[in-house]
Amino acid sequence: xxxxxxxxxxxxxxxxxxxxxxxxxxxxxxxxxxxxxxxxxxxxxxxxxxxxxxxxxxxxxxxxxxxxxxxxxxxxxxxxxxxxxxxxxxxxxxxxxxxxxxxxxxxxxxxxxxxxxxxxxxxxxxxxxxxxxxxxxxxxxxxxxxxxxxxxxxxxxxxxxxxxxxxxxxxxxxxxxxxxxxxxxxxxxxxxxxxxxxxxxx
Length: 202
Ligand code: ATP
Ligand code: MG
What we know:
Blueprint: H1 2-28, E1 36-40, H2 46-59, E2 63-68, H3 77-82, E3 88-92, H4 104-122, E4 127-133, H5 136-140, H6 146-154, E5 161-165, H7 171-176, E6 179-182
Parallel strand pairs: 1-5, 1-6, 2-3, 2-4, 4-5
The structure holds adenosine-5'-triphosphate and magnesium ion.
């Protein structure tokens, strides 16, 4: 019994110390500005995390613009849902590019056309959040030079947040970002032969 009490007291003491550290860190974080986030890695959860932030931003009355650089098969649940919202602009960039197009020239043209539209959102200070979904593949395949994108990101409105998703994000993009998460692929149901599930994968 007294042992339990000791354990409980030690827990309380630890939590008091932890709270002091967390509160001090919160007090220090006073800067307000638009962030660049990169969600990368081979695990599942990059795009769906970005769309979670779209929901948050809309909830705060912000305007959101989404550019998808890879066209999926058919409409996804998120596209159907978000297109019902009035404050979101959702752009499927041209044909996008997949292993199905198999035409580098067409892929480059689609990437370029998508980027030209995305740049407009990145210059529009009424847009609070811009999501550039699967954009990293443009850099990976050499469809769009990162050197052309970084200055546009740097010149965006000061309060505007940007989220870039996709595997294999280049080091210079990670360097430019404020927040980077790399999602590890620990396990994926697909490899156990389970098809993409509505509500989970699309
Ligand atoms: P999500 O859109 O579900 O957040 P993601 O953006 O992290 O996934 P992508 O590489 O864009 O991942 O892949 C999109 C699709 O591929 C989703 O249906 C997702 O479940 C699936 N997927 C993601 N990671 C893996 C993986 N490691 N193995 C197999 N399928 C995967
Ligand atoms: Mg994705």
